[in-house]
Amino acid sequence: MKMKILTLMGAAAILALAQTTQAVPITGAIGFAGNANLNTGTAATATTAISWFGAFTPNPVVQSVSGAIATILPAQTQVVVAAPWNFTTSAVYAPFWSVLGTPGINFELLNTEYMRGVLGGNAYVAIDGTGVLSAPGYDPTPWSFSVTFQDPSTVPDNNTFTFSASQASVPDGGTTAVLLGASLSSIAFIKRKFMA
């Protein structure tokens, strides 16, 4: 009987470890910047990013990065962004951006909200949203992001943009509660066996 209990406890421990090690989220934060052609001459009235490019490269470039994402996307990595992108509609874009020359690393845009404003006499439009970041060896991970187009343009007929994103906090899917319940049930079962 004692052997059965030890076997059950060992199996429960292995199950608990398997459940906690299966999820490998992509943690951290990322920012990239560049220029974009908008469908109007100012962020005050624009609705669509027609094309994207870097200041000195054909594509936008990762400027800052931290966490696990830094091992996947080091600084100066070029990214390809979906175009045209109508940011006034909350449409799914899969992928919204991906890494130039590296398949499997991409960001799927799920929803957006935008806001226009003027700061110091210069117009801007800010788009916030959520999406899912995917990379080989990691679980698809929910991320939140912000894109801002600013006036005045730093290059004639182009608007400067910034993109920043970080891992979104996601509530526990219930695995912890199930494991806690199973552990407490096992303890109660073992206690009853020893008391009998």
Short description:
This protein is an alpha+beta fold and 196 residues long. The protein is 23% helix and 41% strand. The protein has one domain.
Descriptive overview:
23% of the residues lie in helices and 41% in strands. The protein is of the alpha+beta class and 196 residues long. It has one domain (25-167). Strands 1, 2, 3, 4, 5, 6, 7, 8, 9 and 10 form a 10-stranded antiparallel sheet that branches. A hairpin with a 6-residue loop joins strand 8 (122-134) and strand 9 (141-150). The relative contact order is 0.19.
Shape: globular
User: How many domain units?
Assistant: 1
First-last Cα distance:
12 Å
Main sheet: strands, sense, barrel:
10 strands, antiparallel
- Given helix and strand content, the structural type is alpha+beta
Name a few traits of the molecule.
alpha+beta; ten-stranded antiparallel beta sheet; 196 residues
Chart the SSEs and their pairings.
Layout: H1 2-21, E1 29-38, E2 48-53, E3 61-66, H2 69-72, E4 79-81, E5 85-86, E6 93-99, E7 106-119, E8 122-134, E9 141-150, E10 159-167, H3 175-195
Antiparallel strand pairs: 1-2, 1-3, 1-10, 2-5, 4-6, 6-7, 7-8, 8-9, 9-10
Helix pairs in contact: 1-3
